[in-house]
Write a structure and sequence with these properties.
mainly beta; five-stranded antiparallel β-sheet; globular
Length: 346
C-alpha cells in the first residue's frame, strides 16, 4: 500500500461504519455500489466535529443509516428508507432480477425490553428487514419499500420461543413498513419521535439505548425507537440464526459472540467478535487448540454440523429457521419463488 484516500470524508458526519458490501450486476444492480452502514444509536451533527450536539439542538440527527457509494463516480448518499437502526450490514440477494437487500438490527441492548411492554413480552431487539426496489435508480432515489419479517409459526414470535436444540424451523412473511417509519423523518425533514405516532416513550432503565449526554437517565427517543416500537406492536420476528454460546463464557467448543456474516452456496460464515470475558490466556490456548479467540465458523444451511477452523465440534444443527436465509436455488428455501412473495416493485 503506497497511497490511499477516504472514499467518504469525515465532513459528511457519518458515524461508526461497520460492515460493508459491494453489489454488482449479479445481485440485480446495473452498476457497482458499495453499501456501508452506521452501527450506532447516538444523536450527532452531520459535520466533521459531530459529537456531542446539545441535547436540544434542532440540527441533531440520530444515526443508523445505510450509505450507498457509486464506485465509478465516487458519489455517495444515504438511503433513509432502508431503515433507521443499528445496521450490521446490508446484504443483497442474487437471482431475483431487481434489488433486494437484507439488513439486521445489531442491537446494543440485550434481554427483555421492559418498562414499556409487559415483562418478558418483548425480548432483545434484533429484527430482520428487507428493502426492495424496482431497479438501481429507484433504490438510489429511495423509491423502494422496507419490509419486516413476521413469523407464521404458531407460538413462535421471537427467538426465546425456540428452545435450544429443538430444530424448530420458523416460516413467515414480510410486511411493509410505513415509509415515514422506515425513513425516520417527518414531512418537514425533522427526526421522527414517539409522540409523532402516539407511541410510549422509551424506557430509561437500561433495557433500551440510553442518551449518554443526559445526567438524568433518559431512553433515546427518535427514529430507531419508533421503528423498534412499530416492529414490536406488529410482531416483527426478533431472531438469532444460530444457537451457539449457551454455556458460561470461554466454553471452547462453542461459538463466542458471532458478529460479521458472509454467505456461501452451502452455508454462512460467521466471525467471532469476542469481548473481554471471552479471551483465552496463552496457557489455555496451548492446552486446548479450540481455545482460540476471533475464530471463523461455517454454518451449513441444513444436514450438517457447525464447523470451525479446528474441525467438527458441534452436534447436528437444525435447518435454516427462516426460508430467506438460504441462497437462491430453484424450488429450495431462499429461492426466487419464495423471495417473490409480492409483485415486482413498481
Amino acid at each position: 500500500m503506497l497511497n490511499g484516500s477516504f472514499a467518504i470524508s469525515s465532513s459528511s458526519g457519518y458515524q461508526r461504519f461497520c460492515s460493508n458490501y459491494l453489489v454488482t450486476r449479479k445481485e440485480g444492480f446495473d452498476r457497482d455500489i458499495l453499501f456501508t452502514n452506521e452501527e450506532s444509536p447516538n444523536y450527532v451533527l452531520r459535520q466533521t466535529d459531530s459529537w456531542p450536539p446539545t441535547i436540544d439542538s434542532p440540527a441533531q440527527k440520530e444515526v443508523g443509516l445505510v450509505v450507498a457509494l457509486d464506485v465509478k463516480t465516487g458519489s455517495h448518499k444515504p438511503i433513509h428508507g432502508m431503515g433507521r437502526h443499528n445496521h450490521k450490514n446490508s446484504v443483497p440477494i442474487p437471482g431475483v432480477g431487481y434489488p433486494v437487500v437484507l439488513s439486521g438490527d445489531d442491537t446494543f441492548t440485550s434481554g427483555p425490553l421492559t418498562g414499556v411492554f409487559p415483562a418478558g413480552a418483548v425480548p432483545a431487539q434484533s429484527q430482520l428487514y428487507s428493502y426492495m426496489a424496482r431497479d438501481t435508480e429507484a433504490l438510489l432515489a429511495d423509491k423502494g419499500d422496507l419490509w419486516a419479517f413476521v413469523s407464521d409459526t404458531p407460538g413462535v414470535k421471537n427467538y426465546y420461543d425456540v428452545p435450544p436444540s429443538s430444530e424448530t424451523v420458523v416460516t413467515g412473511r414480510f410486511i411493509k413498513v410505513p415509509k415515514t417509519i422506515a425513513t425516520g423523518r417527518n414531512r418537514d425533514g425533522t427526526e421522527m419521535k414517539a409522540a409523532n405516532f402516539g407511541y410510549l416513550q422509551p424506557p430509561a432503565n437500561g433495557s433500551w439505548q440510553m442518551d449518554l449526554r443526559s445526567v438524568t437517565p433518559i431512553g433515546l427517543d427518535g427514529p430507531q425507537w419508533v421503528l423498534e416500537y412499530w416492529s414490536d406492536i406488529n410482531n416483527v420476528f426478533q431472531f438469532v440464526r444460530v444457537e451457539g454460546d449457551d454455556n458460561p463464557v470461554k466454553t471452547a467448543a462453542e461459538i463466542h459472540q458471532p458478529d460479521n456474516i458472509e454467505t456461501t452456496m452451502t452455508g454462512l460464515l460467521l466471525i467471532e467478535d469476542p469481548g473481554g470475558s471471552q479471551q483465552f490466556t496463552a496457557a489455555e490456548q496451548l492446552s486446548n487448540l479450540r481455545a482460540t479467540t476471533a475464530r471463523l465458523w461455517h454454518v451449513p444451511f441444513a444436514g450438517a454440523r457447525l464447523k470451525s477452523w479446528h474441525g467438527w465440534i458441534r452436534g447436528p444443527m437444525a435447518g435454516p429457521p427462516m426460508s430467506m436465509a438460504a441462497p437462491p436455488r430453484t424450488g429450495a428455501p431462499g429461492s426466487r419463488r419464495e423471495l417473490s412473495m409480492r409483485q415486482r416493485p413498481s
